[in-house]
Every structure is written in C-alpha cells, then in structure tokens.
Design goal:
acyl-CoA oxidase activity (chains A, B), homodimer, lipid metabolism (chains A, B), FAD (chains A, B), fatty acid binding (chains A, B), Acyl-coenzyme A oxidase (chains A, B)
C-alpha cells in the first residue's frame, strides 16, 4: 500500500534524535541542507532515472549518459547553481561519466601543473566546456609504476614542437575515463626527450578530436576499451585507448609550472617545490576516503532496512517469522559495517582538515609534516576502500538471494565501487609505502627525531612496548583509553618487530622485499589505529541532540572491538592482551549489538538518502519491498512477450523431437 | 606473435611432471581423457563461442543460450554421447541455462520422490526433452525456511484433483532457473491440504505451458524475474516468477514415493524412510564442493598466468620490470588460493566416496552415519563456496586494473559463481547446523557415544584439550602430525568452549541463539580441519609422476599454515599454540612460497583448461596478453563508429555553447 511506512515500528524504537544525527553525518546544517536540496532536485527529474540502467545495452547506456550530462549542464545554468551545488548535483546523479574526469582530473591538472599563462588560456575553455578533457596517464602495459610509462614526447627544435608518439603496443594509453568517445583534449603523460636526453614523465595538453565534427585528428587512434565489470555500472564511462603516430603539438602545451623546455630545446626546472604534487595526492585520496563512507553507508542502509523487513524462521507457533535483523549472525556481520561507515565518515572529515593544514604549510614552505600526511592518506585510502568493497558484497549476501537481483542495487554499487581499490594507487602497494614510512619512523626514534601527527604515539614507545592491558571485565572494554592503548601497543610492536626482522636481512631492501607480507599487516594495524583514534576524538566533540553521543559511543566501540576480535592473533602474538581479555571482547560485542539493535534502522536513516540515490528496491524507505520487486521484474525486456524470442527456432524443435537424429 | 609461448620460461622451471599432475587433478586417466575430449569439441565449435556474452542485451543473450542448448542436444545425438559425456559437454559449454535445472533438479526430483509408476510416465518424456522441467520451491517471501512456504495444494475429492494456488504476493514462486521462459513443467512445492488439515510441504508435477504453442496455461502467470548481477553471467538463465490462480491438477501428480492422498482424501505415509531425502542433499552438496574447486582453479589459473606476464617496478637499471608473480605480497595472496583449489579438489573427491558410502548404508537401512555425513557436507559446502567467491574476487584484484575488464573473464566468473553461497542452503545457516551437530557431539561424549567419521577426532578429547604443540623450529611446521593435531585441538577446544557457554544460558535454545557468532567460528574450525585432514590423507596415496608428491606436499602445507596464520587468534586464544610458534608459521610460509614460485605456472597448467573454457584474455595459455586485449577492445559496440551515437544531440550542443542559458 502506498504511503504506509512498513518500518514505522523500527523507527519508533530509536533512542536518539535522528534529525540531529543527520547533521552530525552531513558535517553541518549547511551541508545537510545542500545535500538534501540537490538530492531532491535530481530525484524528481525523470531524465535522471536510474532503474533502467542495467537493462540498456552498451550504446544505449552511453547515449543515455551523454543525455544526462547535457541535461545536468542545462539545469546547472538554469538554476544558477554554485560550483559547490553543481558538484553535489553531479554526485547525486550517481552515474560514472566523462564529466567526472573533466572536472575532477583535467581541470585540476591544468590548475596544478600549468603556468599562469597556460591556466589563462585553457581554463576558461574548460570551465565553459568548449573543450572536454581527460587525464591520460596509465598505459596498456603500465599502471602503478608511473616511471615505467613508454609514450614519448620528443622536442623538435626545427619546428618548436613536441612529437608525441606511442613506440610500442604496451605504450597505448589505456583506461583513462572520458577518453574513448567524449573528450576533445587530454593531459597526456609522456617521457620528455630533448637533445637526445630522457627527462622522465611530464604532462602535455594534447587535442584529440576536431572541434568541428568530433572526428579523431590525424595520427590519433582513439576508442573505447570495451565492457567492464557488471551491467550498467562503469559501462556508462568511455574508458579509452589512445595511440599516437608522431603527433605534433606546440612546445607551450607542455605543462610548465615545474619544468620548461626553451626554444633551443634546453630543459629547465622552475623553482616551484616538487612537493606541491603531494598536496594534490593528499587531496584526491581524501576525497576517496569520503566516497568510501558514502558507498558503505549506502550498502548498509539497504541491508539494514531489508533485514528489518525480511522474515525467516523463528516462528514456533505458526505466527509470523522473525525479522532476520534479530539474528545474532546477521548483527555480527552487519553492525560492524554500519559502525565502519560512521568511522570512515569521521576519519574522512578529519582528513579534510589535514588537507587544509598541509596546504597552508606548503604555502609557507613547511614540508615537515608532508611525508607523514602522505603516508596517512595513502594508508587510509587503502584501508577504507578495501573494507568498503568487501562490505558492499557482504551487505549483498546479507540480503539473501534477492541481493543478487539488479533491482537490489547492490550488484551495481559493488561493480561501480571496486575500482577504488586499484586506482590512485593499488591498495597493497600503498600499504607497503606506509610500512616503509613506519619502519623509517621506528629507526629515527633512536636518533631523537620526534614522530609527528598520526605517528606521534610512537614517541611513547618505551611504555607501549611493555604495557599490560588492564581490562578485567567485559565492561572494561568500554574504556576508550584501554582500547586506544591496545591499538597503539599492537601497532608499535608490529612495526618494531618488522624493523628488527629487516635488520637481520643481508640488506634493508632484501629484508623489506622478503617481509612484505608482514609489513602490510603492520601498516594495516597502524591505519586501523588512526581510524579508531579519530572516532574516539570525535566523541569528545560536542554533538548536540538527544542520545546522539550515546549512539556514537556504541558505534565507536563496535568498530574498535570488532577489529580487535578480527585481528585477535595480532594482539595476542604481540602480547598486547591476554587470551582471557580477548574472550571478554566477544562478550562485550554481544552486549553492544543488543544495544544497537533498536537503533539500527534509525542509524541508517540518518544518512538521509533518497530512494532515488539508494537505487534499491530492497532499501526503500517505506520497507514495502515485495510489491516493488514484483513490479520491477515485469519491466525486464525478456517479459515483453509470453513466449520468448527463439522459441520457434530453438525450443520448439527440441520439444517436438525434430532435433534428435538418434536415440540416447 | 602467433604460436610463440610467452610463458615457456616459466614452464621450464617446473620441478614436476605436469602430465602426471593432470591425472591427479582429473582423478583418473579416464576422467582426464574424457574432459580433454569434451572440452576440445566445445572449444572448436563456433556456436559455443563465449567472448560476445557480455556484449549481448538480455534478449539476444537468452536467445543465444536457447541456440546453444539446441545445438548441444543435436551434437549429443550426432556424436552418440553417453550420459557422462553429455554432462561433461554441458559443463564445458559453460553457460547457465534451463537445461541445468531440467537435468540437475527436475529429473532427479521425479527419480527421488516419484513412485515407480510416476517415473515410468514422466521420465521418458523428460529424457527425450518432450517436456522441459524446473524445480519451483523458493518463493518471493521465503527462501531458506522451506517450512514457511505459502503456496497451497488443496485436495478436492469431488473432482479427484489438487488445486494449486498462490494465496499471497509473497507466495509467488521466485528464483527457479528455467521457469521464466523455457519450462513447460515444474515440480512445485506447496502445502498439502486435505480434509481441512495442512500436512506441510510436498512436491507436485504441474504443467505450466501449452505443448502446442508454449503459451502459459489458464490460471498460470509466469515470467522472468529480471536482470541479475553482472553482464552476461546468470542473465542467460530465465530465473522465474510463477503465480497460480486455482490451477487444477490430477491427484496422481503429487510425487508419491513418501506420502500419498487416497481417492477419498486421506493422507497416508509410505514406509519409505524419510532419511532418503538426506541422501539427495549429500549428493547435491558434494557436486557444489566439486564445482568450487573448478571455479577457484579457473580464477587462480588466470591470475597466475597473468602475474607471470605482467611486469611492474623492480628495474633499477632501466632493464625490464619484474613479473608481479615475484612479489611476496602477490605470492602471499595467490599461492594460498592455488593451494585451496587443490585442497577443495581432493576433499570433493573424498565427498564423492562418502556419498557412495551413505547410499550403500541407506539401502541397508543403516542411518548411523547420516547425521554426521549431512553436517559434514553442509559445512564443506559453506566453507568451500565462501572461500571460492572471495578467492575469485581476490584473483581479479591480483590482475590489477585489467581484471576489471569483462575480457579478463573474472567479472563474469565471479557473477556466475556467487549464488553458490546462497542456494542449496545459505552459508551461515549451514554453519549453524554444523555447530548444532558439534555441540550435540560434545554433549554425547560423556554418555560414551563414540563420534563417527569426520568427528571421530573428538573421541580423543582428553588428549586434545591439554596437548601442547611441540613445534620448536619453522621446519617443525612441515610435520603433518603437528599440523593435524593443532587443527584438531583448536576445533575441539572451540566446540567445547561453545558447549560450556551455552550450558550457562537460561536455556539451550537461548544460549545457542546468543552465541551464534561464536558457533559459526567453531563450525569453520571443524570444517577447515576436515579439508586439512583429507589433504594429508591424499598425500599418503601413491601418486605417480616425478615430483608430483613433493608439490602436493608444498600445497598442503601452504593450505594449512596459511589458515593457521589467518586464524591465529583462534589457535592462541585456545592455547593450542604459543605466540612464538605462531611467528614460526609466518617464517615457514615464506619459505614455502619460494618453493612454489618456480612451479606456479605449471601447477595451474595441470588443471588442463582450454582457452575457451578459461574465457580470459589475461589467462591465455601462451601468455600473449596485450595484443589480445587490444584487439578485443575494438569489438565493443561503442567502437562501431568513431563519433559516438548521441554526439549531435548531447555533446555538440555542450561544446558549441548551445546549452548554456546563463553564466556560472
């Protein structure tokens, strides 16, 4: 029945002010109002419908995405949206599209790496979308290792041009979003060669397509790299392949903020500090952490609401079955994911402030915190995206069979999300970078160099190497100090252990190479500590609203203690806690899950997601799932006729024994 | 270049006889020859091509599947294939299709639950495919809990008919494969009601569609439930929805082997033991375990070969980069999955013999091992499918960005595989059943009842509760006795711990309910022990072939020790091993990975998969990956034109500033 709230009883049991929690989740009243307004504009516009995405073939899907992008551009102007509002609108349109790369990579690359003159020339064109740009770095044979790229940009002093060329098949640009079909321009990364010398990788602005008729320019081979994971999903994006056959561009299309080539072909470095590039990396990874909390919260919202709707077993007397949300195995898998969504939200918020801090320091030529900030964002990018990818799939499984239907929204959410584990730094490669930084930090402790920021706790090494956890009862595990100390001790002991084992190897590099599996685990321990710490710090802020703080406390404890249980081996093997204390963790977790249960639906309501954004029949706000599932089914193209296409050719002959030529 | 083996150098480093290992993997020379022959027949037939699956829209895909099924039926007769050969052929066609349910569920249901007379009537029709059947159990609102099904079959003594009816929306049949478009008949599960009394769930043969023109019969609403996870994947299957509006069927279409309704409407149970149904469950789950090893081996084959091809970092002097297979973090993630594929292969082989044993006992009215066999297969189904689903996704990640392309084959393999975690018993529900059996077994130890089969080790409880692991060096962990004892002690201690905690609860049921998260962990420990034990037993068999046994030993040790490391918390918290011994596990694992490295490619070659079956550009036998990726890209429909459809309507107006109505 329309208008009935089938989850009203769940909402009534909430022990906190949901509206106040919405503000906490959004970050501020302004953010909440802004998101809410933009989400509703998108949801109410039929051009932005999403429920047919998985039924469109590749060409229809892509065309539909072009349509949405053009319509959004029109609406942005009609409504005179600010840049902030336009960004939110694109976010709620929720469809991977070439515009993401134009605004998210092409424009920032010119801003960050172009001279003032270059910015003046190119940015107005990009802002007005008179050109559409993408970011062409990765190659068919080269991903994480940027220094391995093969594309060449050879300076020709005779004509004052660079010759961009793809010398091998593996040097083909491969993957850049927006490259395949939409972009007219690209920032292309290539080896700068002048006067016979290779100066390594630099960025160049290259026009790919005619602005008259969009056809590829001479010497340019460009296309789409083909179908990707899932139906719908990233197939709305024209990830592209690009090859250059001696394409000439003017010298001044080298992005020249950091280095230039003179008219004579001399390579000159500017005095702009290279560290500025790290600032961009910190920025991009910070947004990835923020996106992780959005994706995970969306998945948990779907799984939580449907778990309250779906009933199974439990009726001894023929009465209704129990909602699966009552089952401890369901809580045990789902509640830590809700807690993680909140944890990632807050650590993301903190990372935003870290980025501001780093930017201010860079402007003042203070690079002292840069390495730490870089390691911290790299680690958190890895930690949050890995957990979110796995968490979305876990939420799908928590929805039982129906989670496998496209109409549940979860298959597409998973398919769209998982590239985050690979792009902007492969998650394992990033953890090794963190580990390298940790081992270095440990080594420097003896030199008296004070560790900063998120590694400051390592300054307390003497205490942390030998402290004993004081927990005696399950309730002692509610003490944030006990939790934080346990995570600090575990992290520092694992790092020190790695450092010691490396020092036994014939060389530092060999030790690092052989122990990389252990190093990854030490890095994870460090990153989990950061998230736990930032969650605990968040609890110390004044969060207004009835019961809000109490709920956050429960979530924080679930987040930390679930990790403690999951990584119990780490804590025990380092002697951080005892087996008995480990058993008390399980006991406390059970009690925390019971506390969360009556608030579960309200806690995911606090994300304030529209049904349009959720895009899930199972996650509907009103819980009226089954009629919606049933209706959605009939929209499938296969149901256009009762008797399927192919019956006459391939089914009837079988049934009528016209296929059989011999007996079995 | 065609014909060049880019992995030849990897194959040369193998230290064992790959052909002999192929026999071990296949199970026998006969099996190897059969699989090899059928795989080649399928691979060489253009009708069975798979590389276009993800590019077809739903209707094209389904029609193509009907075509393949009809063609297979034709070939099966032309080649006069045996039933065994035909089954293998369908396996290598490797496309979910209505025939899977016809042969795998419809025919066995009639065989298992029909009387001799019913079999005589229906089986010949089914064998000749003059009717096509499916298995309609699950409903929109009811999955795991079969007793909750709502469809009714009410006996009408006036007409000697059952009236099949869907009383509610949630009672709609939902999910059955083959139901939506292909099946003419179904075995429908419904509540048998006669004389006003509900006798619970029974199976009925119901005709759904006209045999003349395939249109749905009166009172029947039938269709497809819509798009599912992934592109291609299970969308070739017409999982269906079915509603009955008082559909009448003759009384003798109740499957009557176990119970009958007389002409007068009296419900009568036959003297056939109900336990026979468990035999079927053991059979089905045994095949699921076998399928897990196939899916996981396929994913590891792709990831291993591509990890040997793909190079990244490591070149200090400008030389070629290192293959990623050399990296310890890659080995640490991939090698345990190769080991798991082998472990699941062998435990699956053993399960097959268990099924034979159970069948023989059932025929002799010996039910003494049935509960244990049932728990064992339930647990192994859960353990192997969960690990395989996660393992396929891990293999995808191990292929870096390119694993995200449909042409890598991994997205579709994942999408096709994951339902195995849900169907035939949700994996968590199954583990709880195992746990219930374990707790019961522990309780019976004091009564003197001897545990049988895979729980026999529990008879040794006194020793296992207090034994101390004797491992002193990393090499001591190569001792199978030390490994097995550690797994036994951990499993029994976790089970006993659960049993003790349950006994403290106000009631057994309450204790069971509250501790279900712990119970699941205890069940996992028990199931892992079974797999480890069967692998160790396999090593005691005579495996001919140079170096074969040594390789299996390495794989077995990797399988066991990786689990030990992953679940270190269990082993430490139960006091099974010490922290020091835990650290030695990591040390030994590093050494085992180095031993496996030169054999990695040969170990996945031993699966003997054709490139057609693998269906992956990255997993090509010859390793010539990049040209193939490049060629495949151009086949995408988006590349049919240089300028995309939609340019004129949606891109040109943006670029030409015809969209903007106002300035930003």
């Amino acid at each position: 029945m329309e208008g009935v709230d089938y989850l009203a009883h769940e909402r009534k049991t909430a022990q906190f002010d949901v509206e106040a929690m919405k503000v906490v989740w959004a970050g501020s009243k302004h953010e909440l109002e802004l998101s809410d307004r933009m989400a509703r504009i998108v949801a109410s516009d039929p051009v932005f419908r999403k429920d047919n995405r998985t039924m469109l073939d590749r060409k229809e899907l892509f065309k539909n995405t072009l349509k949405k992008a053009a319509h959004a551009w029109k609406r942005i102007h009609e409504l005179r949206l600010t840049e902030e509002e336009a960004g939110k609108m694109r976010f709620f349109i929720d469809e991977p599209a070439y515009v993401d790369l134009h605004w998210g990579m092409f424009v920032p690359a010119i801003k960050g790496q172009g001279t003032e003159e270059q910015q003046k020339k190119w940015l107005p064109l990009a802002y007005k979308m008179q050109i559409i740009g993408c970011y062409a770095q990765t190659e068919l044979g080269h991903g994480s290792n940027v220094q391995g790229l093969e594309t060449t940009a050879t300076f020709d002093p005779k004509t004052d041009e660079f010759i961009i060329h793809s010398p091998t098949l593996t040097s083909s640009k491969w993957w850049p979003g927006g490259l395949g079909k939409a972009s007219t321009h690209a920032v292309v990364y290539a080896r700068l060669i002048t006067d016979g010398k290779d100066y390594g990788i630099h960025g160049f602005i290259v026009q790919l397509r005619s602005l008259d008729d969009h056809s590829p320019l001479p010497g340019i081979t460009v296309g789409d790299i083909g179908n990707k994971f899932g139906s719908g999903a990233y197939n709305s994006m024209d990830n592209g392949v690009l090859r250059f056959d001696h394409v000439r561009i003017p010298r001044d299309q080298l992005l020249m903020r950091l280095s230039q080539v003179t008219r004579e072909g001399k390579y000159v470095q500017s005095d702009v500090p290279r560290q500025l590039l790290y600032g961009t990396m910190v920025y991009v990874r910070q947004t990835i952490v923020a996106d992780a909390s959005k994706a995970l919260s969306r998945a948990t919202c779907i799984a939580t609401r449907y778990s309250a709707v779906r009933r199974q077993f439990g009726a001894q007397d023929g009465g209704p079955e129990s909602p699966v949300l009552d089952y401890k195995t369901q809580q045990n898998r789902l509640f830590p994911l809700i807690a993680s969504a909140y944890a990632f939200r807050f650590v993301g918020e903190w990372l935003k402030s870290l980025y501001t801090d780093v930017t201010q320091r860079l402007q003042a030529n203070d690079f002292s915190t840069l390495a730490e900030a870089h390691a911290c964002t790299a680690g958190l990018k890895s930690l949050t995206t890995s957990l979110t990818a796995d968490g979305i799939e876990e939420c799908r499984k928590l929805c039982g069979g129906h989670g496998y239907l496209s109409s549940s929204g979860l298959p597409e959410l998973f398919a769209v999300y998982i590239p985050a584990c690979t792009y902007e730094g492969d998650n394992v490669v990033l953890l090794l970078q963190v580990a390298r930084f940790l081992v270095k930090t440990v080594a420097q402790l003896t030199t008296g160099k004070k560790p900063v920021g998120t590694t400051a706790y390592m300054g307390n090494i003497e205490h942390l190497m030998q402290c004993r956890c004081a927990v005696k009862t399950a309730d002692d595990w509610l003490n944030p100090y006990a939790i934080q100390e346990a995570f600090e001790a575990r992290a520092v002991r694992m790092a020190v252990n790695c450092a010691q084992n490396i020092s036994k190897a014939p060389s530092q590099e060999e030790g690092f190479f052989n122990l990389s599996a252990d190093l990854v685990e030490a890095a994870v321990a460090h990153c989990q500590l950061i998230v736990v710490t930032k969650f605990i710090e968040k609890l110390q802020q004044n969060n207004v609203g009835d019961g809000v703080k109490e709920q956050l406390q429960v979530l924080c404890n679930i987040y930390a203690l679930n990790l403690l249980h999951k990584h119990l081996g780490d804590f025990l093997v380092t002697g951080t806690i005892t087996p008995k204390q480990g058993a008390l963790v399980s006991e406390q977790l059970r009690s925390l899950y019971s506390k969360l249960r009556p608030n579960a639906v309200a806690l995911v309501d606090a994300f304030n997601y529209t049904d349009h954004y959720l895009g899930s029949v199972l996650g509907r706000y009103d819980g009226n799932v089954y009629p919606a599932l049933y209706e959605q089914a009939w929209k499938d193209p296969l149901n256009e006729s009762d008797v399927p296409e192919g019956y006459a050719e391939y089914l009837r002959p079988v049934l009528k024994q016209q296929v059989r030529l011999a007996r079995l």
